[in-house]
Design brief:
Helix content: 10-25%
Largest sheet: 8 strands, antiparallel
CATH class of the largest domain: Alpha Beta
Distance between the termini: 41 Å
Order of helices and strands: HEEEEEEEEEEEEHHEEEEEEHHHEH
Number of helices: 7
CATH topology of the largest domain: Naphthalene 1,2-dioxygenase Alpha Subunit, Chain A, domain 1
Strand content: 25-35%
Number of domains: 2
Shape: globular
Radius of gyration: 24 Å
Length: 406
């Protein structure tokens, strides 16, 4: 008998990349940095200082003064500059030292590392490239024209520190159809991916599992349509539409991350809900709050997996698992020099998972769970469902969803 079929397959944990991804990385809501104070941001195994100048422009520098290593995040904003608390050296947003109050002149070599900044949809981005290239503004995510207007609720923004996992674990979910049933309690009825250039998109339709209660996806009367696109290595926009008995709610979910070490990252997500016509402000805010809770639950379900799983460089896949290797090949383009980006990393790739067999089994399993429950025998799920608090009857079902790509 061939050893290929008798030997146990070994897990290859691989090694984390020796560099951080090239591209735009979101730091959070721009207005949170416009309070006249220096802000500390951890990213790329560095401490960054972020502040707003007198014109409202946001700047980001390496967090340590090049004079004698003072912590600029503990300093003070003076005019347009950030002043070091150690000796009051004052640094401008261009990375140059602008003034040393006790000195006749500023040394010609008084420059520090600067990160180019940009704003999109009320969020602050910085450009990172190990090669030191100028920021490519054509690679910024698209503008969302109606967000930040009275047509949508304000961003509800949240942050979670993830330890013990490389951020690729998050990216893998783009191609992972089956985890939506087991982790997020949904029936993925259709699932398709398109990878091209610097974007990777997941198209999914799903409905809730009736055996898992009314929280999260667990409402059989709700259907979810999701289009989730990564624009570069670390920022995803998820356009969501939930139909509950004809009541349609549109949501925009931002899912982004900032690497802090080879095995940790800061996960951030933001939600903005399109205000349904004819509803008062209180009801609209209730819808937005319910979505925030639901998506937060979805991310925490993923976190519980990431923090306990092993990294796997050689995943053993079946036909219904989706194009995980192709997705990782797309993702690799951000971890090599631009000159080394290969056509197979950026060429258009499409794949649709046949969900027929999976849903046949899942439907039967859920039916059996419901039968046991009706007979007084409670099923024991692998993951406990998370109940969400009740909301007004009008919107109770319209918010029963979680992230389309988490």
């Amino acid at each position: 008998m061939s050893t290929a079929t008798t030997e146990a397959r070994a897990l290859d944990p691989g090694t984390s990349p020796a560099r951080y991804a090239r591209g735009w990385h979101c730091l959070g809501l721009a207005e949170d940095f416009r309070d006249g104070k220096p802000h500390r941001v951890s990213a790329f195994e560095k401490k960054l200082v972020v502040w707003s100048d007198s014109q409202g422009s946001l700047n980001a520098l390496d967090g340590y003064c090049r004079h004698m290593g003072g912590d600029l995040t503990q300093g003070e904003v003076k005019g347009d500059n950030i002043a070091c608390p150690f000796h009051d050296w004052r640094w401008g947003g261009d990375g140059r030292c602008k003034e040393i109050p006790y000195a006749r002149r500023v040394p010609m070599r008084a420059r520090t590392q600067r990160f180019e900044t940009a704003e999109r949809n009320g969020q602050l981005f910085i450009w990172h490239d190990p090669e030191g290239s100028a920021a490519d503004h054509d690679l910024l995510p698209p503008e969302l024209p109606d967000v930040l207007t009275d047509k949508y609720t304000p961003w509800s923004w949240h942050t979670k520190e993830i330890n013990g996992s490389h951020c690729r674990e998050l990216i893998d979910n783009v191609a992972d159809m089956a985890h939506f049933y087991y982790v997020h309690f949904a029936f993925p009825t259709s699932f398709r991916n398109i990878f091209e250039g610097h974007t990777a998109t997941q198209y999914m339709s799903s409905k809730g599992r009736p055996d898992m209660g009314t929280g999260g996806y667990g409402d059989e009367n709700s259907t979810l349509t999701s289009v989730a696109t990564y624009f570069g290595p670390a920022y995803m926009i998820n356009w969501l539409e939930v139909d509950y008995k004809g009541f349609v709610t549109e949501v925009i979910l931002i899912n982004c991350h900032l690497p802090t070490s080879p095995n940790s990252f800061t996960l951030q997500y933001g939600i903005s809900v399109k205000k349904p016509e004819g509803l008062d402000e209180k009801t609209v805010n209730c819808i937005a709050e319910r979505y925030t809770e639901s998506f937060g639950t979805g991310f925490l379900q993923d976190v519980a997996i990431w923090e306990n799983k092993a990294p796997v460089q050689n995943p053993l896949l079946c036909e219904e698992d989706g194009p995980v290797y192709q997705l990782r090949r797309w993702y690799e383009q951000f971890y090599v020099d631009e000159a080394d980006v290969k056509p197979e990393m950026v060429d258009r790739f499409e794949f649709e998972v046949d969900t027929t067999k999976a849903n046949e089994y899942w439907q039967a399993e859920v039916a059996e769970n419901l039968r046991k429950r009706a007979s007084g025998v409670e099923p024991s799920p692998d993951v406990e469902p998370v109940e969400t608090p009740p909301v007004p009857e009008l919107v109770e079902g319209s918010t029963s969803s979680t992230s389309g790509s988490s």
